[in-house]
Amino acid sequence: MSSIEEARYVLINAKSGTALDLSGEDNRSIIGYPRHGEENQQWETIRTDAGWHIRNVAHDTYLAVDGVARDDARVIAREEPFIWHLWDDEENPAAIRICVPDTQHNIDLTNYGDSEPGTPVAIWGRWNAVNQTWFFERGMSSLLR
């Protein structure tokens, strides 16, 4: 269980400091990118009975796994909602793990949390890795409500 509420956030990777970004190149790929706070980096959390939907503010698309949950499956934006579980990290309770239900897979900034702009975001099996944890930041920009 996490301390997250239904709200608008910018999701920051705990290792790289880059934001979870809906790529402007295709409006589908999810990448790590330097934080700028525009709407393609803003995500709304929506609580459901089964978990959470995470919706992009710019395009009203949802964070999802491309295909089935397996190591290195890319995280994408799609029109249909996808269920996630949000858990406080055991090592750093201020950080959140974004998990695929009923699996050991977490959202992971690939290449061990590479801060290079455009680094792909995928899911990987859970391990003690800071690049699998995220800070949910509110009020970072005047664009945030």
Automatic annotation (TrEMBL):
UniProt xrefs under CDD domains: beta-trefoil_Ricin_MPL_CNL
Protein name, entry field: Ricin B lectin domain-containing protein
Domain (Ricin B lectin) ranges: 6-76
Domain of life: Eukaryota
